Amino acid sequence: MVGKMKSLKLACVGGGTGLSALLSGIKQFVQAKQASSEIIDMNRLSAIVTVSDDGGSTGRLIEEFDVLPPGDIRKLLVALSEADDLVSSLFEYRFSSNGDLSGHTVGNLLLIALTELNQNSFPKAIQEASKLLAVRGQIIPASLQPTVLCAELSDGEIVRGESLIPERKNREPIRRIFLEPRGNDSVAEITAHRGAVTAIRQADAIIIGPGSLYTSIMPNLAYSEIAEVIRTSTAVKIYICNVMSQPGETDNYTVTQHVQAIIDQSEIGIDYVLVNDGLASPQILKNYVQQEIRSQLARICTYAEEGMKFVQQESNQTPSQSINFVNSMSDLTKHINQLSDEINLITDSSKVQIFFDPQVDQLDGVEIVTADMIHDTKVVAHGIELDVVRHDPQKLAQTLAKTLCSHFKLAGS
Questions:
Q1: 12, 40, 59, 384: which has the fewest Cβ within 10 Å?
Q2: Strands, E assignment, 182-288
Q3: pLDDT in tens, 252-279
Q4: How far apart are alpha carbons 231 and 228 in whole angstroms?
Q5: Is residue 2 within 8 Å of residue 407, measured between CB atoms?
Q6: Rounded to whole angstroms, how far apart are CA atoms 407 and 138?
Q7: CA distance 262 to 213
Q8: Measured between alpha carbons, how far is 155 from 193 in angstroms, rounded to an integer?
């Protein structure tokens, strides 16, 4: 039992926008000096972040400089920064020219430069960037090895590449996530960063998420050392469930399915699950549905065009080639049916948002904590501004702090 008002060591495991929102909320919560904030010392917080991103600016930098992905690290640096707002804004500034710099952020480029200035040490680059941004807490990459994130689907197909997993044509559910060496790296075994394992081992509380289940959270758990240290730790383990389903990853997932996916991947026991119970606006839910339907219909059109080409070519084929034609058409039909079924499911906007349902969710031994933790915001995707629903950083941090106070029976609960 942790003594009254003693600050806790927190290890936050995840990646991307979800983890940066959590860390930003924790920082703001502590700065507000609320009663329960005394259990959190920013200097005792560690963020273990996935290094499997391969899209956008990050993907281009990986190809050009053969480095670890800087994108998620950059987001966390900004989230934990206590520097002047101008410095943080500069770090996040994204070039919009038509040249080679187009799409790159200053922060990503700076991390590459700091890596090269420090004998290609990525951890040292993070430390130097942390000084520039007055970061409190540690940001630790899950591994120092270049890897490719892979997903094995329920039918055995393998999809390679983090950015390709949610966009894959085959919409069979994901069975498991695993990692492969990137490029010509011939290491026999992919290992986690020792610093990440140590930070988790020393933690009083391990926070998993929020973030994309299969492309932000699971990549960390795909390292056997990280999965084992979480599994064997006596720390309290808290999973923060996403507020919205994610096409290509968690279509129509319940809270139970989110938790079960983590258990299936790593055999980790979860003590608490934080679930949003705030309602998103009907218009934004409608926008989510419309965007997903457009995406699915575009995929169906692609398959249909592919099928028409097969039909046009079939008359000139040999008998053996005709067998291939039948098999190909069978596969196309299966994929089109999958997409059609998904469209039928998502036309109900209530299935887009994730809630705990005691009639459906069976989580024996896991305590469910529900609270209104969302807000509406805007993001830019592929140059288009979209209205989306995300965790509200401050509400999320407050709910987490209350859960920690209650668990450890500390003041402020």
A1: 384
A2: 205-208, 236-240, 272-276
A3: 899 999 999 999 999 999 999 999 999 9
A4: 5
A5: no
A6: 24
A7: 8
A8: 32
Q: Which residues pair with 385 in a beta bridge?
A: 380
Give the pLDDT confidence of 155-213 residue by residue, as tens digits: 999 999 999 999 888 888 999 999 999 876 555 689 999 999 999 999 999 999 999 99
Residue type, position 360, single letter: V
Instruction: Give the N- to C-terminal CA distance of the chain in Å, as an integer.
Output: 15
Q: Can you tell me which residue has the tokens 């457009």?
A: 294
CB neighbours of residue 55 within 10 Å: 16
pLDDT score at 2: 45
Residue 222 CA to residue 219 CA, distance in Å, equals: 5
Q: Name beta bridge partners: 237.
A: 206
Specify the long-range contacts of residues 28-36, CB closer than 8 Å, at least 24 apart.
Answer: 28/393, 28/394, 28/397, 29/394, 29/397, 29/398, 29/401, 34/398, 34/401, 34/412, 35/411, 35/412, 36/398, 36/401, 36/402, 36/404, 36/405, 36/410, 36/411, 36/412, 36/413
If one counts every other C-beta atom within 10 angstroms of the C-beta of residue 271, the result is 16
- The 10s digit of each residue's pLDDT in 305-336 is 777 777 776 666 665 555 676 677 777 777 77
Q: Quick check: 8 and 204 in contact, CB under 8 A?
A: yes
Spatial CA neighbour of 58 closest among 131, 117, 107: 107
pTM of the model: 0.88
SS3 content of the chain, % helix, strand, coil (to 5): 45, 20, 35
- Please enumerate in sequence order all residues whose Cβ is within 8 A of that of 148, keeping only pairs 6 or more positions apart, or say none: 52, 54, 160, 161, 162, 179, 180, 181, 182
